[in-house]
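Our consortium's second objective concerns turning raw sequence data into structural hypotheses that experimental partners can test. To show how far this objective has progressed, the report includes one record in full. It was chosen at random from the queue rather than selected for favorable results. The single chain below, 539 residues long, was entered without modification.
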Amino acid sequence: MKYYSLIILAILLATASGCKKLLDVNTDPATPQVVKAEYMLAPIIFQMANNTATDYRVLFKYTQNMFSQDVLAASVVWDRHGYVSASDLGGSLWRMAYVNFGLNLEDMIKEAEATNKWTYAGIGYAVKAWGYQMLTDAHGPVILDEAFTLGKLEFRYQDQPEVYARVREWSQKALECFNKTEGANVAALLSSPSGDQMYRGDRPKWRKFVYAVLATQYGHLVNKPEFKARYADSVVKYVNLSFANSADDATIGFNGNTSGDSNPLGQNFALFTPLAYGRIGQPIVDYLTGGVRGIPPADPRTSVDPRLTRMINPMSTTVPATNGVYRGVMPTQGDVPTVKTIPHVLGSVTGSSATPFPGKYIFANAARYPIMTYAQLQFIKSEALFTKGDLAGAYSAYIAGIRGHMDFVNTYGRNGNPSAQAITAAEIDAYLASTEVAKTAGDLKLADIMGQKYIAQWGWAGLEQWCDLRKHHYSADVFRNYKQLAEGELNDTNLGKYAYRLRPRYNSEYIWNRKELDKWGGLAPNYHTVETWFSLPNN
């Protein structure tokens, strides 16, 4: 009885006070409702790696970076440019934008703006711009204005022109935040172990990241009528403002001790350990063994390209591999003719998920996870200048991109056990002097640029590589080693077409937002083959 009397008394006192709520948890520092920006940033940056890597399991099959060992595995449908129905496979970027970032990112920006944590706010807008750029380039039309409208159960889609414009707006807001005076002690928070896992709060590097996002966006528009007159110059402008060398590369750090703090491309995270993923595709083998400008030999053992031995393993009976030929999986064929001979991307040459995995190149548990790189941007610039007709400028950026990727390998790709030797200056010079590299601006071809970009992006830039393939419509002239699929090799629902978009996340859209999805043709079995706006010639 005494217990209930105390409760009634408390209620009466709370009612009498009028202005003070009985359960005003915001007055209790142990249970805050407003979370500080510094508590949210590290998990948000982690999701950049987590969700891109998760979707890359299937995008790597479209780009032919990696395949499945087993032709009977369900995931082979992606090798054939299909999709797994009633599944969230291919929906991780969608989840990233609306759930993992979601209101956490919105709240981080708001709290940072309200407390003069302007670097946190700027990073928030930069990540938001990058995230929506990735989202729309994967899916086409997405939820934009109504994304976080409370009380709604159905959400309207908006197409790529609107999303591209919003990415530019958020990029500008990020730059404005980076110019504002910081509050006290913010730098220490950003540089702490639980702070900014990409640049440790380095504002100049984050500005370069924003410019890299803008350069990438304009680089997708090569088919638009305005590209030569306007967009190419925007690509060059923003690339020049972005990364100066590999030291500026946007990469995310991991300790590599457990699955929770490991690089998503590594063994501990286990995304690529199943046999359905992670088998090295034949295109990268061909590109690294004479196929950029020539005809790659059958079963090569060596190459003038020093990146071959640093990036992938040959077939061998030992772990790590020390001898043997280099061979990759052909699309839809699995590991043939001999079972378990083609190296797994993590370094196991048996193809099984058993340890030990040496974790070669960027596939080690403690390796830094790449988001964007200097080499990648130089090839974007080279392509833009080549398309515009500035061959001299295109050639200069092309050579810078090749050298930049050699630096990337030396800086971020010397992982595994034993770790690879650094690429020497003599090896780089020998490669540049070889027949695999154009010697003059007049000799440069678009396929040279895109072939080198394919090498530089292999294994980590699945979406940008897919954008390249789609904007050039899977051209065999542009991508010399992409294995063209016959109509019978493509998925039955594709009607002879390659994939041009990922379907929206099944669990949210096909179950809860089906009416809006139907407006865009999303219920059609071949919706994933419909071309998105960015690669079309119309505005």
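The partners drew two points from this record. The first strand starts at residue 66 and ends at 67. Residues 43 and 164 are 25 Å apart (CA to CA). Both points have been shared with the crystallography group to help prioritize constructs.
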